[in-house]
Amino acid sequence: MTDTVTLTSAIDGFRFTAAHAQPQGERKGGIVVVQEIFGLDQYVHADVARWSALGFEVLAPSIFDRVTPGYVAEHDLQGFQTGVANVGAVGLDAMLSDIQACIDELAPRGPVFAVGYCLGGSLVWLAAGKLKGLAAGAAYYGSMIAANAALPLNAPVVVHLGRKDGHIPADDVKAKLGQAHADVPVFIYENSGHGFNNDGRPDSDLDDARLARQRSLELFRAHGAG
Q: Domain range spanning residue 125?
């Protein structure tokens, strides 16, 4: 069952909301689920439920609350354009501060992991280099990963990319990460495009999505998930 909690960002004291789910069964750790630019939509809530069912306490921060509290958009051109504008209005530092607040909230109860998609994938990569207390992260198809490939990492990360992604050249990203972080696993999913973790979306291949989730879970288990 998902509820809503309110947390405080250290950067400016802003109070933001987050979707929250308790672990089902034995607790394995905490996970911060970081949204795409479309807000905490049905796909984010589905992901929160998946990780909760695996035994993780989950927080999914609503990182656009500073401009539009509770923002959710359709996966269309208008939603994309508004989401991009929201990223510029909020700024990366504030979004990362909200993620840090989620990590700090979960950390007293065990190791904390992060998984993010699109914008969230970029933020997980940046969080692994800039934030404290993250045990490991899974970054899906983040457009800012290549530009920040040389960022020193404080936590291990796995990167998931779709071969058919028209926004992110998978081979280029893998090559840049290979030069800067040869130990970072970068997986390219041949049947999938952008947003393939969203079951039922046109670019989603269910087998690819399941395999990526399994690989993320294996990384988390290797770094402290019970």
A: 2-222
